């Protein structure tokens, strides 16, 4: 319903752009600190708590460092952290047992953070890649990524995370049937209030490169993830995946990567009206941060890139810029 626009000079769009106050008054979308989820990398490998070269400004943190980050998040008004472990290579096996060890790095970090900052929401990643000798998100036999066997392992992993105190479980593995299986497992174990943020539309993307460096999976990964992550050419499939995951018990859904998939974000929000998140992934961070550090673009590109997600209809964004943008938004 586009109203009839009176011709110039009755309509001068520039009138409402004249001052910051007027521009703010008629801003159609806003970005708030509470729209952000901050992904952090944790490690307990001696000497691995160092800067990630392909993600300038991002470091792997010890568990104590992660607790300090959680305290900083709370101070800045960030409502949620998402944890990714850089695991000791000697614990990686083909069967990935470390993934559901109640005392694994990620579960210890969740407990430490929830003890120190209970009001902060903690999200965990459900996928086998940090624990897998071959770097894949699923169990592998004869070069095939096994679906149903992987789902069983993922349920065990999700239960251990819920037990450790995770508020939000984030399955990023792209196996079929995992959401329903996890939901049933959580209910049966008495974790009925643990939320699932499904990586529903996750594309097989080269934008994940720096992340794989950060979690130490780059070297291990044999081949690519194209038999389980989505083809970047597809849009209808994303909507079918979101419908499927919501029907299986996902509370929130995610589109990943972000900027190159804004059309998917907009379509998902318009079609389902469910809480919809975008992941501004490591490669997007690296591109923007690299250009900022080189002086090629201004830091304002961060806010501009995040506003795009809000305009596309996203309720929130996972972004490594979360603490930077929180500081900028708070002036
Ligand atoms: C792994 C996982 C990946 C990311 C989040 N969880 C990488 C992958 O699928 O290979 C990527 C996040 C980023 O690039 O920032 N299950």
TrEMBL record:
<keyword id="KW-0350">Heme biosynthesis</keyword>
<comment type="pathway">
    <text>Porphyrin-containing compound metabolism; protoporphyrin-IX biosynthesis; coproporphyrinogen-III from 5-aminolevulinate: step 1/4.</text>
</comment>
<dbReference type="InterPro" id="IPR001731">
    <property type="entry name" value="ALAD"/>
</dbReference>
<dbReference type="InterPro" id="IPR030656">
    <property type="entry name" value="ALAD_AS"/>
</dbReference>
<dbReference type="InterPro" id="IPR013785">
    <property type="entry name" value="Aldolase_TIM"/>
</dbReference>
<dbReference type="Pfam" id="PF00490">
    <property type="entry name" value="ALAD"/>
</dbReference>
<dbReference type="GO" id="GO:0004655">
    <property type="term" value="F:porphobilinogen synthase activity"/>
</dbReference>
<keyword id="KW-0627">Porphyrin biosynthesis</keyword>
<comment type="similarity">
    <text>Belongs to the ALAD family.</text>
</comment>
<comment type="subunit">
    <text>Homooctamer.</text>
</comment>
<keyword id="KW-0456">Lyase</keyword>
<protein>
    <recommendedName>
        <fullName>Delta-aminolevulinic acid dehydratase</fullName>
        <ecNumber>4.2.1.24</ecNumber>
    </recommendedName>
</protein>
